[in-house]
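Typical record is below.
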Amino acid sequence: MSLIGPARSHGRYGFVDCRGDFVIEPVFERLCPFSEGFAAFYANGRFGFIDSSGNIAIGARFLAASAQAPCFACGLCPAREETLVGYVDTCGQWAIPPQFQYGGQFFREHAVVLAAESLPGYCLIDKRGMTITEFQAYEVDLNPGDLDLIHCTFQVESELMDGFVNWHGNTVISPARRFISAFSDGFAQYSEEQFGPYGFLDSKGRPAIPLRFWNRPSRFVEGLAPAAISKGRVGFIGKNGEFLVPPLFDAAASFSEGLARIATRGMVGYVDKLGNQVIPAAYSQAEDFRDGFAVAEHSGKFCLLDRRGHRIYQEV
């Protein structure tokens, strides 16, 4: 049975089926989506995990390692114990004991961590917690984008510059610019100034799309990126930098599962890659589609939408 959600009822969360009926009752103060067969839940500020039957598999005894929703990747989940981060396995045991200042999700059997204060520097570790390589950086995006590149900020003399290292810790795009995002769909957003126009770099770090767009943040997903000219209305550009969907919207987000959120007159809807508004802008809030469904809010009520815009569930 497919579990959809989380879905909210009277301020509590559970999961519904494709008919909108609860199959995991809404008894949790907060729930996260399923990943690798487990969904994180919160109780009294700490998180644990339920299984696909709604049974508590791991008690709520861990602190979140970051602002990201806790989830398993490669069988491990970063978690904090007091001030240090380690990694919990699907049995709820510390597979890698808490010993890091910060730790990202595992990706292809490796994770980026910041060592404890006594051992300054970033490391790539394996699932045993063993250090694969070390590298120095001022700041690192702990959850890498695509191209297997890790987005870093380096101190270059008296200035901060962005660059990228690979999973061996080697610099592959030298720090020569500031205000660069992680790679997505082969491109990275960049700007020469914090609030100036932006363009996109290619996988070699070369400017591929000129500095002429203004809405932030923006990233390519499924071949398109939201973009606006002269701080005006937002549309979607292709990888040649030309508009494929005209700038007609007040705001827009990146595509997810073939649909993108757009905002018009303070209300949110969804368009397809041709710019057709397939779900009207009738929602005060909405999230990206995930596994064929999206969370939205209509008239103050929580609801779940399918790709045709049907509300399979709406809070009473």
In short: The chain is about 0% helix and 55% strand.
